[in-house]
Amino acid sequence: MTEAVRTPFDPADETGVAPSGGRDLFSKFDALIAERQALLDTGVRDPFGLVMEKVLSPTRAIIKGKETILLGTYNYMGMTFDPDVIAAGKKALDEYGSGTTGSRVLNGTYQGHTEVEEALKEFYGTRHAMVFSTGYQANLGLMATIAGKEDYIILDADSHASIYDGCAMGNAQIVRFRHNSVEDLEKRLKRLPADGGRLVVLEGVYSMLGDIAPLKEMVEVSKRHGAMVVVDEAHGMGFFGPNGRGVFEEAGVEDQVDFVVGTFSKSVGTVGGFVVSNHPKFEVLRLVCRPYVFTASLPPSVVATAATSIRKLMHAGNKRAHLWENSRRLHQGLRDLGYKLATDTAESAIIAVLLPDQQTTVITWQALLEAGVYVNMARPPATPAGMFLLRCSLCAEHSADEVEQILAMFEAAGKATGVI
Ligand SMILES: Cc1ncc(COP(=O)(O)O)c(C=O)c1O
Is the pTM of this model over 0.70? Predict the structure, then answer.
């Protein structure tokens, strides 16, 4: 009988001892692995292992063989199946191939990359636009590059992981202020030494709870204390403000914001990220921003779909209005059913339902899925203050009738699980 040969790359056995005899580096995840297993042992489905077997439209997919309403995508404007967007992607695939195989600063800038940057400049009315491979990388690049050792980044405590990771990658001093507190922001700005640059980082919509920032007041305070301001409009682009630029447009602070960060992975309906700005020296970032330089550029089909989508979003007033109707109706309906929600009114297209603990949240999530609606589950550490959430995000392509169906499913699921 031959003994199985273990290579140095074999995983450790259950004892946690690596084949080399050293400590298994994965042992730090043991508590998480056990917690997840305990949850699955209760018989619930894994909320983080769902597969969309077929996607039928921006609002419908087949999940476990069943047609399901999607209420947990960031496809706010429903652009993923727009015929013009799809045609543009197919044409670019045929004409330019499947990928660029290179960095934007070498062989990876095609006609389509400059076209999508032109579309962004038009959309935002700015002089500069720089496209990254994801929104995550746009934040990573901006935070890590423009604020150096002598500078301060002042950020909302509930900032997105990509903002925190950009801060961790750079050398600036990091100062956090209480979520959405203008008073705390001002207090922190006042305490900073007079020398050193200051960058205040804000988000238009905070995606966990769907609440919006008081940007008018925050930008005013930041400017009064000599800071540059960046607003991440990942969840605001497309349906806030007269031109759909985001919450900062609606707040009337466009001329005071130094940088806007955004993504193509939400309202635009594909993948990619960007920073737009009027700063006269902005273009130097293309040479010094590592998450821009040291990665391959977006495939031609992706930039073609993004450019087409962005140009259509400039004239999407009706869709915007319908998305707001859907958001308000769902918020009111869930409240009337007795659900506890994160905001008093529908502040954005994200409606977060608050639940008491992980078990109740997963059971309710599963009851909703079985009834025929998919929502996003969120739990610590992704959520603020240890909250357990069912996050609903609406789409301009949900019909009024679908919103009523969703409410009926929430009523049945909530009653079955005892949440309402
Ligand atoms: C506020 C915020 N910024 C940035 C990102 C990153 O976007 P992307 O999906 O393009 O990496 C996200 C996505 O979750 C986000 O919510």
Answer: yes
Selected catalytic residue, list 113, 128, 235, 398: 235
Residue from 203, 206, 210, 208 nearest 349 by CA: 210
Return d(Cα 10, Cα 341) in angstroms, integer.
Answer: 47
Check pocket membership of 277 for ligand 1, CB cut-off 6 A. Answer: no
Could you confirm whether 277 is annotated as catalytic? no
Asked if 306 and 289 touch (Cβ cutoff 8 Å), the reply is: no
Residue count (the chain): 420
Q: In 3D, which of 292, 282, 283, 389 has the Cα closest to residue 341?
A: 389
Q: What b/e string do you get for 246-272 counting C-beta neighbours within 10 Å, with b at 16 or more? A: bbbbbbebbeebbbbbbbbbbbbbbbb
**Closest listed residue to residue 330, CA positions, set 413, 391, 376:** 391
Closest CA to 403 of 394, 411, 390, 412: 394
Q: Which residues contact 81 (CB under 8 A, 6 or more apart)?
A: 57, 58
User: Within 13 Å, how many C-alpha atoms sit on residue 269's CB side?
Assistant: 31
Answer yes or no: are the C-beta atoms of 361 and 390 closer than 8 Å: yes
For ligand 1, say whether the CB of 270 is within 6 Å of any of its atoms. Answer: no
Backbone angles phi, psi at 36, to 5 degrees: -65, -45
2 Cα–ligand 1 center, Å: 51
The candidate with the shortest Cα–Cα distance to 255, out of 129, 139, 125, is: 125
Residue-wise pLDDT for 14-61, tens only, equals 555 566 678 899 999 999 899 888 888 888 777 788 899 999 999 999
**In a mutational test of the pocket of ligand 1, which residue from 120, 130, 160, 205 has the highest number of ligand atoms less than 8 Å from its CB?**
160
3-class secondary-structure state, position 79: helix
Side-chain-side CA neighbours of 202 within 13 Å: the count stands at: 32
Structure tokens of 217? 């007041």
Q: How confident is the model at residue 10 (pLDDT cuts 50, 70, 90)?
A: low
